[in-house]
Amino acid sequence: MKLFGATILGAATATSTCGTCWEADADGNCVPESGKVTTICGSNTMKMIIDTCLLEGYDFPNSLVGDDDSSNCRLRTYDADNKLLTFEHGLDECGTTMSVDEVSNQFFFTNELNIPPNTFEEISIFTSPPINWNFNCGYDMNYDITADEITVDSSPQIGEFSGQGQFDVSMSFYTSGNFDEEQTTVQYQVGNQVNFGISFNGGSSITGLRFAPTTCEVVNVDDQDQVYSLWDSSDDSMCSAETPHPVDFNVSVSPNSESQFFGLQYKGFAFDSGDDLNQQLLKCHVKVCAADDVTSPCQTGCFEPETEPTTTTTTTTATTTTTTV
Of 99, 218, 301, 323, which has the fewest CB atoms closer than 10 Å, so is most exposed? Predict the structure, then answer.
């Protein structure tokens, strides 16, 4: 599947007039003018906006994304005043496919929009070629989040036929290990339990993806050369019950089918800086991984799935002896 080169079957070339709202590209093919097709990549959705001046002679109310005939994959809205069509769906809906680019460290989500031409039913012919356009959104695999900037910017990035977005990865502090009440003012006494959580896309999952906090560190704001490595999921000693963590770091809540959330805890500490109030900055690196990649940081090290214990069944045959007196 090609990515923008959006193939229009039977499209005219520069040897003929491209028509209103179309222009010739460097290869002489007719393509939409700049700004006539827009792709918006949200944290868990794709949106395509198309100017209907491109679609004279097309049956755009019957347009379809992918091969899913559900209403969510058909035309979402039509702005008659501005003559704009809008299609929008989730990243794991409407036959959208996901691919991994290890070079750019990105996930790409791709769909195909099919726009049929108007057909003269009496004679079963049409005078405009069918349109098959590919749209794709790219998302980074790696996110760095900090306590003073809790949420990574997830505002959409806009482009034509392809776009760049970010997943919504956030960090919050909580009043208890139940992780049910967020703290507005984060202040702890040395020795008290610090409870913080990291969530992915507001807790909603995307099919085919996992996430994991691979490293966390605490920085002394007054002397930023002082950094304490709180967590490293690739360090076996961090996840071994036989090796107690110096500040009792613990992954107490892990993601499940209902919530994409990690609940994390450690014992509050202070840097030996001489000040009674020690300002600190908590930083974590979060990795988003393909769910079927068993070698990824999301499924290795401390996040390696537990193996099911092997059960051995032993059958004992009892022998009964009857004695006649």
Answer: 323
Dist CA 165 CA 141 (whole Å): 11
What is the structure's pLDDT at 210?
95
Query: 23 with 33: CB under 8 angstroms?
Result: yes
Alpha-carbon separation of residue 324 from 252, 286, 308, 321 (angstroms): 66, 77, 51, 10
Burial, 81: exposed, middle or buried (Cβ in 10 Å; 0-12, 13-18, 19+)? exposed
Give the whole-angstrom CA distance, residue 45 versus residue 86.
Answer: 13
Q: For 110-147, how does the pLDDT look when each residue is reduced to its tens digit (9 = 90+)? A: 998 888 777 666 566 655 677 888 899 999 999 998 87
| pLDDT tens-place string over residues 3-50 | 333 333 334 334 356 778 888 888 888 888 988 999 999 999 999 999
Average pLDDT of the chain, as a whole number: 81
Query: What is each CA distance from 323 to 60, 317, 319, 320, in whole angstroms?
Result: 92, 20, 13, 10
* Domains of the chain in sequence order: 22-140 (2.60.40.3210), 168-302 (2.60.40.4100)
Confidence of residue 1 (pLDDT cuts 50, 70, 90): very low
Model-level pTM?
0.76
The separation between the first and the last C-alpha atoms of the chain, rounded to the nearest angstrom, is 88
The whole-angstrom separation of Cα 218 and Cα 150 is 15
State yes or no: pLDDT of 107 exceeds 50. yes
